[in-house]
Amino acid sequence: SQTVGTYVETPKPKCEDDGQDREMMDDIFDTTYTAKEGPEPPRKIVWRNVILMSMLHIGALYGCFFISSAKPATLLWAVLCFMLSALGVTAGAHRLWSHRSFKAKLPLRIFLAVSNTMAFQNDIYEWARDHRAHHKYSETNADPHNAMRGFFFAHIGWLLMRKHPDVIEKGKKLDLSDLHADKVVMFQRRHYKKLILVMCFIVPTMVPWYFWDESLYTAFYVPCLLRYALVLNATWLVNSAAHMFGNRPYDKSINPRENRFVAIGAIGEGFHNYHHTFPYDYTASEFGIRYNLTTCFINVMRYFNLASDCKTVSKETITARRLRTGDGSYRSG
Ligand code: ST9
Ligand code: ZN
Ligand code: ZN
């Protein structure tokens, strides 16, 4: 069913833990991957990305000096831009488009795609493709941000060099037909460069300048650059810190961990041992809305009938799994 442009309905696969129907299985860990023998391919650093990322982070640090002189409305706007971009990644690219953990009506998909564009983390299609590879080939050479290569690589290093050939080779086998069939996703991909210019840079900067006479410098450095760098780093911490620091109550055989600090910064995405064990749960956590603004948001959308089919895992299934594979560190809160 790899047909481009049409999403061919295939019989729904069953979940191994509880026999539930699954929309897609390409986010389930594939135990059959083995690394190729012989020397590792050479690392090719992409200096353009090194320079741009350095400039962004220097700009964001410089932006900290503008916070005290910024108008309150500008600071509120910066927080709003942070929240919107974050939701575009967590509820949009992650829980909806990568994992299909709920269904979203067109207005919600448009809202999430617009917010996602404000986050400028590559287009949704590319994000979801890399993320499915991250789950399926977790912590192998075919994982784009393989945490076995260290904190720096998993955090930002992977965006500063060419991908390992295994990422591309294994990634080509992923089923992405649902993304091809989603007109919102494909529209964003087609017009991505123009759209990020508007949503990530022009809108965050011009709104404070136009509506409440903020200086252009402050508007550029705080809601635009500083906000963008903060959302990026909060996201990257899920790949780095939440793959290294924390406990593993659900599956001790994998590296992803429960990390409350990351969960708070990444609006609900730090329960990473749970998430890699049950990637289809729309709350990405056992504990629903706790430290989980993304789940609150999806629940509100469900109330307004814009979200539906939210998948969860039964308490019995979770308990059986953590007794079978957990590290014994489980706490019910
Ligand atoms: C950014 C992304 O920051 C962050 C993602 C984080 C994910 C986190 C997940 C954690 C869970 C969720 C938590 C959310 C929390 C949110 C909290 C919010 C508060 N499969 O990539 P190219 C093929 S982006 C299949 O160029 P290179 C494909 O044909 C930041 N095929 O590889 C592709 O062509 P096309 C801003 C694949 O040349 C071709 O290869 N953006 C796959 O090695 C070339 O692909 C940047 O900084 C695959 N997986 O270059 C840009 N991958 O696309 C950074 C590739 O046409 N990126 N192919 O189909 C780049 O410049 C480049 O990608 C590169 C590698 C230099 C890194
Ligand atoms: Zn992960
Ligand atoms: Zn995920």
From TrEMBL:
<dbReference type="GO" id="GO:0004768">
    <property type="term" value="F:stearoyl-CoA 9-desaturase activity"/>
</dbReference>
<dbReference type="InterPro" id="IPR001522">
    <property type="entry name" value="FADS-1_CS"/>
</dbReference>
<keyword id="KW-0560">Oxidoreductase</keyword>
<keyword id="KW-0444">Lipid biosynthesis</keyword>
<keyword id="KW-0276">Fatty acid metabolism</keyword>
<keyword id="KW-0256">Endoplasmic reticulum</keyword>
<keyword id="KW-1133">Transmembrane helix</keyword>
<keyword id="KW-0275">Fatty acid biosynthesis</keyword>
<keyword id="KW-0812">Transmembrane</keyword>
<feature type="transmembrane region" description="Helical">
    <location>
        <begin position="75"/>
        <end position="97"/>
    </location>
</feature>
<keyword id="KW-0479">Metal-binding</keyword>
<dbReference type="InterPro" id="IPR015876">
    <property type="entry name" value="Acyl-CoA_DS"/>
</dbReference>
<dbReference type="GO" id="GO:0005789">
    <property type="term" value="C:endoplasmic reticulum membrane"/>
</dbReference>
<feature type="transmembrane region" description="Helical">
    <location>
        <begin position="218"/>
        <end position="238"/>
    </location>
</feature>
<feature type="transmembrane region" description="Helical">
    <location>
        <begin position="195"/>
        <end position="212"/>
    </location>
</feature>
<comment type="similarity">
    <text>Belongs to the fatty acid desaturase type 1 family.</text>
</comment>
<protein>
    <recommendedName>
        <fullName>stearoyl-CoA 9-desaturase</fullName>
        <ecNumber>1.14.19.1</ecNumber>
    </recommendedName>
</protein>
<keyword id="KW-0472">Membrane</keyword>
<dbReference type="GO" id="GO:0070542">
    <property type="term" value="P:response to fatty acid"/>
</dbReference>
<feature type="transmembrane region" description="Helical">
    <location>
        <begin position="50"/>
        <end position="69"/>
    </location>
</feature>
<dbReference type="Pfam" id="PF00487">
    <property type="entry name" value="FA_desaturase"/>
</dbReference>
<keyword id="KW-0443">Lipid metabolism</keyword>
<feature type="region of interest" description="Disordered">
    <location>
        <begin position="1"/>
        <end position="21"/>
    </location>
</feature>
<keyword id="KW-0408">Iron</keyword>
<feature type="domain" description="Fatty acid desaturase">
    <location>
        <begin position="75"/>
        <end position="280"/>
    </location>
</feature>
<dbReference type="InterPro" id="IPR005804">
    <property type="entry name" value="FA_desaturase_dom"/>
</dbReference>
<feature type="compositionally biased region" description="Basic and acidic residues">
    <location>
        <begin position="11"/>
        <end position="21"/>
    </location>
</feature>
<dbReference type="GO" id="GO:0005506">
    <property type="term" value="F:iron ion binding"/>
</dbReference>
<dbReference type="GO" id="GO:1903966">
    <property type="term" value="P:monounsaturated fatty acid biosynthetic process"/>
</dbReference>
<dbReference type="GO" id="GO:0006636">
    <property type="term" value="P:unsaturated fatty acid biosynthetic process"/>
</dbReference>
<dbReference type="GO" id="GO:0032896">
    <property type="term" value="F:palmitoyl-CoA 9-desaturase activity"/>
</dbReference>
